Amino acid sequence: MSPQYISLTNTSLRHASFISASTLHFNQLHASATYMPQQHISTTHFNHQHDSTTPPTVLMVEVYSEVEDVMRYYGNDSVSLAHFPFNFFMLEALNNRSTLTGYDIKDTISLWLDNMPEGKWPNWVLGNHDNGRVASRLGKDMVDALNMVVLLLPGTPLTYNGEEIGTYDSQNHSIFTLFLISQNYVKLN
């Protein structure tokens, strides 16, 4: 099984004034922290804090793993975890033109919807800071079509900055991402 990664989104961090670096170790970058049961406990803590904030906020988590493991981050009837884990399966499945078929798209959509716990909310991700942009991976001619697909699906479409207009990868991309992450860590301390 491949390792799992979890992090809170920048949106969550901006609203996380209740976090103290002594309780949760967000003063370090944990880019390759593998899956551990403690992650569910931390996510439960964040959810309880999140639910008590005004205005209401949404807790999303980043998890790279098998679909069964990712679905656990929705929680269950007795333990509420994240509002939703990012759905990276479309992003991972559609990584080049040879995997861009109607069958692949349908199978990827079904993988999420068929495994999602009842009553939970789906989401769709085509690109993020860990992967190449849609225009670079699949071609600029596919950007509008794929954005239309995720906009027509039930749930929340999530767009990485510039994906909606067909932005290509750039060499400064990783430097900018590290800058944004470091700015959020500074705000927490």
- Report strand order across the widest sheet: 1-2
> Using only CA atoms, what is the Rg?
17 Å
Strand content: 5-15%
The coarse overall form would be globular
Descriptive notes:
- InterPro entries: GH, GH13_cat_dom.
- This is Maltase A3.
- Pfam families: Alpha-amylase.
- Residues 30-171 form the Glycosyl hydrolase family 13 catalytic domain.
- This protein is mostly helical and 189 residues long.
- It has two domains: 1-84, no CATH class; 87-178, no CATH class.
- The chain contains eight helices and four strands.
- It has helices at residues 10-14, 38-51, 67-71, 89-93, 102-115, 134-138, 143-152, 173-188; strands at 60-61, 84-85, 123-125, 156-158.
- The strands form two sheets. Strands 1-2 form a two-stranded parallel ribbon. A two-stranded parallel ribbon has the order 3-4.
- Helix 3 links the parallel strand 1 (60-61) and strand 2.
- The longest helix has 16 residues, at 173-188.
- It is globular.
- The termini are far apart.
- Mean pLDDT is 75; it is low at 1-32 and 185-189.
